[in-house]
């Protein structure tokens, strides 16, 4: 009678070990991903490490004093025109191998606006504002850091590219909305007093005021129209022409019906006009990515408060930010738990 030999699987133990190693590696990668996903909402910007009056852009290792007229004239080379408006023209330029943006006054007619924007850029330098690189007032130019993605108007087309498509998610878009609200908090409590973002009469114009960085953050860029609110005065007015449309706040519209518009009769207003616009800007930034419907639901109450007809009843930018951060943290925690449950 033949003896029956019991054979054990030849590759049993190595197969189990391989599976365990693969599972461990998957877990490590997942937690690394989660850590990167929910890093601090403060923007990473090189110029945040420099003292006032200094800059650091691109691959620079050390901070350098703002460039003056001689350095700008001799060492900055204009490459091509990348933007043009009533107040200034913007040129992609090069300085010592670094890409920079050179802004030149378009017309003497708008010199006051140009100089106001430059003054605001100087006084409001922070991690929320594009870095100033140099100034030459007598030539009507100043230089800033360069961001190749352009303004926030390019957001959807940028996230549609292969390089960024994986980042077209609720957390990236909500983080951009946070950047916008954080800037309003800064603007309404700035070192130069309470300022109003006047170049924001429609959604397109508002988004054009911000640059989109390569790591998908917002930086305020166009500071030509930031009037100061005097708490003892009659408020400010964004220009001397009639403003219309649902995007602008009710108090920014002509209140006297069929009577012809008159700038002299138009009442002033304050920073609460910026609050009215927050829901519309956030809706545009969030778009319709998965998870955005849940975010809109969480933000419904604060957005309803932003849309109150009486500006005195609207929340401050800081109060809006508190809710936004709470929603961001809640979504982060919920998403993290759901991913861990899958392990």
Descriptive overview:
The protein has 343 residues and is of the alpha+beta class. The chain has nine helices and nine strands. It has helices at 12-37, 69-75, 111-123, 155-159, 170-188, 203-208, 272-286, 292-306, 317-341; strands at residues 54-55, 64-65, 76-84, 88-95, 98-105, 132-136, 141-145, 210-212, 218-220. The strands form three sheets. Strands 3-4-5-7-6 form a five-stranded antiparallel β-sheet. Helix 7 packs antiparallel against helix 8. The chain is globular, with a radius of gyration of 26 Å. The two termini are 51 Å apart. The relative contact order is 0.11.
Task: Provide keyphrases for this structure.
343 residues, alpha+beta, 5-stranded antiparallel sheet, two-stranded antiparallel ribbon, globular, POMK
The largest sheet has its strands arranged as: 3-4-5-7-6
List low-confidence stretches. Answer: 1-11, 23-39
Principal-axis shape: globular
Termini separation (Å)?
51 Å
Report on the biggest sheet. Answer: 5 strands, antiparallel
Helix content: 25-40%
Helical segment count: 9
Radius of gyration: 26 Å
Which percent range describes the beta-strand content? 5-15%
The structural class is: alpha+beta
How many strand units? 9
How confident overall, as mean pLDDT?
88
What order do the helices and strands follow? HEEHEEEHEEHHHEEHHH
Enzyme class: transferase
EC number: 2.7.1.183
Organism: Silurus meridionalis
GO molecular function, one term: ATP binding
